[in-house]
User: What shape does this take?
Amino acid sequence: MNNAFLSGRVRGQMRVSYTAQGEKVILFPLLIEEGPGTIDIIAKVPRGTVFDHRNAGTHVMVGGRIIVSGSESGRSIRLEATKIEWMED
Assistant: This one.
């Protein structure tokens, strides 16, 4: 089973886009504080959900599946989040 839980800080501005079906999708880089660096987080957001935690440095915990794409020479890794918990500092 491919499940991962990561915690860290948002490292940059959160980007918002929409699918052809009108679903909101967010994408942001997560700086893993006790790990190798940064991983991109992508998540579909339910309608009506408002994110007011778009600032860099916000602490967050995410859960989902690791997605690997590309070839050996140009591989990218991201986490497709199914759960996002914004943490208090």
In short: The mean pLDDT is 86. The radius of gyration is 13 Å. The longest strand covers residues 59-69. The chain has one domain: 4-86.
